[in-house]
């Protein structure tokens, strides 16, 4: 069944048409950390950034413009305000509803998130 998903944005930040069936093509199966998510949660993932020395941390956005994090939380890289690991996805409420253009990470680790409105959010180790 083809169903249009409103508010889907490509890398350029311009709105594009997408269908649920095309979004399901995102293959997260090769990353063991996603085994901690339910099948329902996996079906909603639009964009994901897996990081950490063993791929043990993840930041992902959903088709509902929610942002979730999961993993070991090294140096506060999950952005939840503490350094506690989590085996259940935690929503970043302060970023819910933001249209995410891109996600990235660097050593430390450090996270950078950019919105289609030109906002940039960063958190994590903060070293250079």
TrEMBL record:
SUPFAM superfamilies tied to this protein: RCC1/BLIP-II
Keyword Repeat assigned: yes
Key words of the record: Repeat
Organism encoding this protein: Mus musculus (Mouse)
Domain of life: Eukaryota
Name of the protein: Regulator of chromosome condensation (RCC1) and BTB (POZ) domain containing protein 2
């Amino acid at each position: 069944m083809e169903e249009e998903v409103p508010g889907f944005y490509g890398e350029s930040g311009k709105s594009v048409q997408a269908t649920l069936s095309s979004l399901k093509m995102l293959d997260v199966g090769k990353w063991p950390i996603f085994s901690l998510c339910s099948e329902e949660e996996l079906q909603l993932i639009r964009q994901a950034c897996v990081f950490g020395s063993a791929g043990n941390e993840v930041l992902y956005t959903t088709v509902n413009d929610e942002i979730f994090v999961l993993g070991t939380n090294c140096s506060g890289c999950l952005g939840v305000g503490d350094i506690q690991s989590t085996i259940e996805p935690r929503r970043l409420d302060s970023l819910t509803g933001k249209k995410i253009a891109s996600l990235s990470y660097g050593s430390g680790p450090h996270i950078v998130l950019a919105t289609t409105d030109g906002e940039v959010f960063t958190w994590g180790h903060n070293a250079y």
